[in-house]
Amino acid sequence: MRSNLLELMSTFVQVVELRSFTKAADALQLHRPAVSKFIKQLEDDLGVKLLHRTTRNLSVTVEGEEVYQRAKALLNDVGDMMATVSPNQPPHGRLRISAPLALSHTILIPSLREFQALYPQIEIVLTASDRLTDLISEGIDCVIRLGELVDSSFISRRIGEVQMATCATPSYLDKFGIPLTPGDLVHHKAINFFSENSREVMEWKLVVDGHVVSQRPGSTMLVNNSDVLLSCGLAGMGIFHALRTTVESHIDSGRLTEILTEYATVTKPVSILYPDRRYLPPTVRAFVDWFSDVFASKHQF
């Protein structure tokens, strides 16, 4: 067994995740020929081809995907061991996070300077998207999720809930009237959000006489992006249902008017997920604990 096996595996993991020899070399502070040499050494030792390479494209072979998953898990375990036996060593390295756009804008990003001050040796790679990311295939360390969870194969920590609000611009309400009950929504234009993954349109859930009533008002517009949902709402294209944290400042400024305030909305749970590993990497543990505290401090109902 080569004495530099961990270095070979670390280089291979970087190449796979960055999909580039040049970017991996930059990240590892190596010359590009050294990265190519390490990958060839690993392929020779294993006796399999790990990567398909052309002048423009790089893809992982079936065997390469298996080696990648195992190598990453092993490198995480090594990092955990070092952190365990060296408790004074602060968490360091790259942390890949995925979070919904709305939570990224309003909660995560405004607080990230605090995290960076606490853990200056952690490099954050943030994927902000309303698409459900695949933690394993996309190499994500942890993901913040909205709504009820269906990923039973992952470890999850429910950190709280966010409130919803139903809004429209004053100009829209002046023109089409203000709905006084959830039933009145059928007479209005709605901007609806749909899941990019399932294509399912999000229901608007309100509490009427102690019972949860789910509605999908007729759409004048369907969008799969929470930024676009807010932009359409601010443009006066119709009534919409969104996270209160994304519309609150616009309600306060008068650009939006909250409606149906006599009917409570059903909150959405917020959770953090990460792959099932026996030892949680110190970078992930630090982020999960920190964000849980940040969220609790900002969203106590």
UniProtKB/TrEMBL annotation:
<dbReference type="InterPro" id="IPR005119">
    <property type="entry name" value="LysR_subst-bd"/>
</dbReference>
<dbReference type="Pfam" id="PF00126">
    <property type="entry name" value="HTH_1"/>
</dbReference>
<keyword id="KW-0804">Transcription</keyword>
<dbReference type="InterPro" id="IPR058163">
    <property type="entry name" value="LysR-type_TF_proteobact-type"/>
</dbReference>
<dbReference type="InterPro" id="IPR036390">
    <property type="entry name" value="WH_DNA-bd_sf"/>
</dbReference>
<keyword id="KW-0805">Transcription regulation</keyword>
<dbReference type="InterPro" id="IPR000847">
    <property type="entry name" value="LysR_HTH_N"/>
</dbReference>
<protein>
    <submittedName>
        <fullName>LysR family transcriptional regulator</fullName>
    </submittedName>
</protein>
<feature type="domain" description="HTH lysR-type">
    <location>
        <begin position="1"/>
        <end position="61"/>
    </location>
</feature>
<dbReference type="InterPro" id="IPR036388">
    <property type="entry name" value="WH-like_DNA-bd_sf"/>
</dbReference>
<comment type="similarity">
    <text>Belongs to the LysR transcriptional regulatory family.</text>
</comment>
<keyword id="KW-0238">DNA-binding</keyword>
<dbReference type="Pfam" id="PF03466">
    <property type="entry name" value="LysR_substrate"/>
</dbReference>
